[in-house]
Amino acid sequence: MKAVQQKKRILITGGAGFLGSHLCERLLADGHEVVCLDNYFTGAKQNIVHLLENPYFEVIRHDVTFPLYIEVDEIYNLACPASPIHYQFDPVQTTKTSVHGAINMLGLAKRVKAKIFQASTSEVYGDPQVHPQIETYWGHVNPNGIRSCYDEGKRCAETLFFDYRRQHNLNIKVARIFNTYGPRMHPNDGRVVSNFIVQALQGRPITIYGDGSQSRSFCYVDDLIEAFVRLMDTEDGFAGPVNTGNPSEFTILQLAENVIEMTGAKSEIIFESLPQDDPQQRQPDISLAKEKLGWEPKVSLREGLVPTIAYFDNFLRGIDTWSVRDI
Ligand code: NAD
Ligand code: UDP
Ligand code: UDP
Question: Residues with beta carbon inside 6 Å of ligand 1?
Answer without folding.
Answer: 13-14, 16-20, 38-43, 63-65, 78-82, 97, 101, 119, 121, 177, 179-180, 186
